[in-house]
Automatic annotation (TrEMBL):
One of its GO terms (biological process) is alkaloid metabolic process. It comes from Coffea arabica. This is Diaboline synthase-like. PANTHER family: ACYLSUGAR ACYLTRANSFERASE 3-LIKE, F21J9.9. Belongs to the plant acyltransferase family. The lineage of its organism: Eukaryota, Viridiplantae, Streptophyta, Embryophyta, Tracheophyta. It is found in: Cytoplasm. The keyword Disulfide bond does not apply. It holds the Pfam family Transferase. Pathway: Alkaloid biosynthesis. GO terms for molecular function: acyltransferase activity.
Length: 443
């Protein structure tokens, strides 16, 4: 990245709810599913708006509108303005607010977009709130929500949010952003998020987060990449699966299956093909609409579970076979959730009490985590100056993490695949001719 690129801070402030949280709502319990999230992990999303210069909006008007509407949104999403308590399963809804940083980036939107697919984190440092307020440690350091508004030389802006995963999953962030934008547009609809997770899945005092995959010995540095799967190429993947007997393959199935296959191929080549290991593909699933009765779409919190797909070795596995494996795993999960809502907390508790044998099996496997954010209405977030030209999820390498996040392209048909792999695996992936037949490296 160009070393001259800088973020100039204009202002930093705390946005508090427009009205105080009623005393009976002061302490908000998290759900058992919320507790399963890493306590310090954040969902980070950036919304790029490239064409504001030609509109009636002025920079100071945008800033004031966002601040005033955020204040009103926080009155409805009152846990977002609170602070996580030390017990780990409750939020003190004390109205301390969300951090709002405003600044300028001496670049153009197009230039930043070109560099987003690189492995450098410096671009992310420009568009996301990098640090909290200066000065001694204070309650601000425990803010659950951070917002940064950045303006560019071309007149475009990027609005980024960073929200603690303990209080929201990707679907919740989408709901929050669309409600915030609706308030800014002064629509007649007043947001009324459903904050009922703890009533469905009561928390457990003292429950600590435990990753489903145990830590492995350090295996070197990790690299980040964005791959673009355009609608026409996804159509070709679907046709290939259909011709091999897969009935109505979905975008998620063909793209994730192709990537899983390529991940295994890269891992095998990284070991010179001499050490074949089993692999596990961990898929997060939004269960709001698959349990009985289904939950409202605006249920806010964490409402996600998972299913696993595994392959005994890294030998070449055909795409249709992997698509069927993914479908079988998701079908089984749907059946479990439909028949018994308690299957969800049972799965979580089982992952926390996994047997030593299961842990050893995981350590001896190549593990990959996948989360699809496709179909969440991120591209509908319109504050009054139009919808975003790009929605960018920032994923941060965790120790020994192989991560895949899928999100829609602007057209709603293509998919961006955001990945983090070991550097050697990533370099081998980028040379995979099968992958390059369907994906573009210049996202």
């Amino acid at each position: 990245m160009d070393a001259s690129l800088q973020f100039e801070i204009i202002s930093e402030t705390v946005i508090k709810p427009s009205s105080p949280t009623p005393p009976p709502l002061r302490y908000h319990k998290l759900s058992l599913v919320d507790q399963a999230m890493p306590p310090n992990y954040r969902i980070r999303l950036a919304f790029f708006y490239a064409n504001i210069k030609g509109t009636r909006w002025l920079a100071n008007e945008i800033s004031q509108l966002l601040k005033s509407s955020l204040s009103k949104a926080l009155a409805q999403y009152y846990p977002f303005a609170g602070r996580l308590m030390k017990n780990g399963y409750m939020i003190d809804c004390n109205d301390m607010g969300a951090q709002f940083t405003e600044g300028r980036i001496n670049s153009r939107v197009a230039e930043i977009r070109k560099q987003l697919s690189s492995s450098s984190e410096k671009v992310q440092d420009l568009i996301f709130a990098r640090s909290l307020f200066s000065g001694p440690a204070s309650a601000n350091h425990r803010s659950l929500v951070f917002v940064q508004l950045s303006s560019f030389n071309c007149g475009g802006i990027v609005l980024s949010v960073s929200i603690n995963h303990r209080i929201a999953d990707a679907s919740s962030v989408s709901t929050f952003m669309n409600d915030w934008a609706a308030i800014a547009r002064q629509t007649s609809d007043i947001p009324s998020p459903h904050l009922h997770g703890a009533s469905l899945f009561p928390p457990v005092d003292g429950q600590q987060y435990r990753h489903p995959f145990p830590p492995k010995p350090d295996q070197g540095k990790y690299a980040k990449r964005i791959l673009a799967f355009h609608a026409s190429k996804i159509g070709e993947l679907k046709a290939a699966a259909l011709n091999s007997g897969v009935e109505n393959p979905t975008r998620f199935e063909v793209v994730s299956a192709l990537l899983y296959s390529c991940f295994m191929s890269a891992a095998s080549k990284a070991n010179s093909g001499s050490h074949i290991r089993p692999s596990i593909f961990f898929n997060a699933v939004n269960f709001r609409q698959i349990i009985v009765p289904p939950l409202p779409q605006n249920s806010v919190g964490n409402f996600a579970t998972y299913f696993l797909t595994s392959v005994d070795n890294n030998a070449e596995v055909k795409l249709p076979e992997l698509v069927n494996k993914l479908r079988e795993g998701k079908t089984k999960l749907r059946k479990e959730c439909t028949e018994n809502i308690n299957a969800i907390p049972s799965k979580l508790k089982a992952s926390h009490s996994a047997s030593p044998t299961a842990a050893i099996e995981t350590i001896n496997s190549d593990c990959y985590g996948c989360s699809s954010w496709c179909r969440f209405p991120f591209y509908g977030v319109d504050f009054g100056w139009g919808t975003p030209s790009l929605v960018y999820p920032a994923i941060i390498p965790e120790q020994n993490a192989n991560i895949l996040v899928l999100i829609d392209m602007e057209d709603g048909n293509g998919i961006y695949a955001h990945l983090i792999l070991k550097e050697l695996d990533m370099s081998l992936l980028e040379e995979n001719e099968v992958l390059l037949a369907y994906a573009s490296l210049d996202a």
